[in-house]
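Repro:
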Amino acid sequence: MRGLVGIALAVGVACGSTPPAKEVLPKVQSRHNRYLADEEAKAQLFFNKQLEFIHELVIEQQLRYIKALIDAKTAATPVAFQGTGGVEQWRWFVALYSWPVDDMLRIMSCEDYTGNPNRIGGPDYDGLYDYGLFQIHGDPAALDPYYNVQRAYEKYQASGFKPWLGSARCHGLY
């Protein structure tokens, strides 16, 4: 409040007269409040526009992801593994995820260089088998190549390259 009184007195002195504070103070305070309200409205409008932009980006990203999943499920899936193309035939699908694609293809190649989604390895130390492209441990559903890559991505997100330490001498990733 002291600042507003100071402004009111300065205005009065600059004009050559000193009006009573009772007259000037409400006008200055009213003008100041309008200014603050305008600034707050501008800030709120800016915030709302930013929020809308971010919301649109998130929706766009989710739609791209869903479209990629639909395309992957409806793509021509090999009915029987032909043994041609190696792991490179799966690059398009591995690249749908946010991880180092070349490194993951190297891991896939170490697990089975042919890129055979039907490969079953093991039994391992615990009596369970490893399944599919990334040799997912103990999960027979991983013979579905799309599920296999999804599970591998989940494992990668949780612990990096650690799930494939058994083949680290081959791929060199630790």
